[in-house]
Amino acid sequence: MLIDSNAYIGHWPFLQLKYNNFPALSERMQEFGTDISVVSSLNGIFYKNTQFANEELSEEIRSKKAYQSRFIPFAVINPIYNGWREDFETSVNKLGMKGIRLHPIYHGYELDNPACIELVKMARDRDIPVALSLRMVDSRPSSWLDVEKEWTLANVMPIVRAVPDAKYMIVNLANSLVLDEKDTALLKKSKVIMDTSGRNLLDLGSLLKTFGTDKFCFGTHSPVLDYCTGLLRIESLRNDEANEQTKEMLRSGNLRSFLNL
Q1: How far lies 225's CA from each of 151, 168, 214, 228, in Å?
Q2: Measured distance CA(101)–CA(99) in Å, rounded
Q3: Closest CA relative to residue 253, chosen from 217, 226, 221, 229
Q4: 35-59, pLDDT tens digit by residue?
Q5: What are the residue boundaries of the structural domains of the chain, listed by start?
Q6: What number does CATH give the domain 3-258?
Q7: The whole model's pTM is what?
Q8: CA distance 261 to 258
């Protein structure tokens, strides 16, 4: 079984995307043998009111029965936008969202913002995972209208320290993964899972030893990144780095446990 932990539909204002709607994403999933995808809306990053994007996502998933069994929707919530608490409740209780995605760089707040901490605690109390991306697109060739800031793994640790018993998905590990000893220990014992889409997972075998085999899962960051690299990082692991059981955990087992599937 193969589960993609990190996919999107929608548009990016500064980049032409392919495979960015449900029919096209479904075709890519079929081509590469992916059974289920965790999906959120790129539009939610740029809409002033992110809830409109969550409603669009929900409507599209509900439009076909096949989509409802293949896609796990995550809501984009902006905790500094008026009405975010209602957005959270509506997304979880009415729209059937199974997780939330935060985009602090684009929405203009820090992870230690009191409203952000409150939101993460609300998600924790519902056993709902919180997804964070180290970067959305490579800032180097991006439009001057886009943000230039990118995160390292250390940049997400303030929220993990503030709410250590929440569930976190950290995706597109494109930049430094170096943590000090204290934060490494915290991440290893926390409910954290990281995807394989990011460019900085060139030595996944070593990272499995550092953080644990249960801390990683397959992810594509599609359609922003190509679909197959995240899977190749798993399949190319040598026998002394990961046996078949570990590879199956990375393909789907870890995420199934993490999402209670």
Answers
A1: 17, 21, 24, 9
A2: 7
A3: 217
A4: 999 999 999 999 999 999 999 999 9
A5: 3-258
A6: 3.20.20.140
A7: 0.95
A8: 8
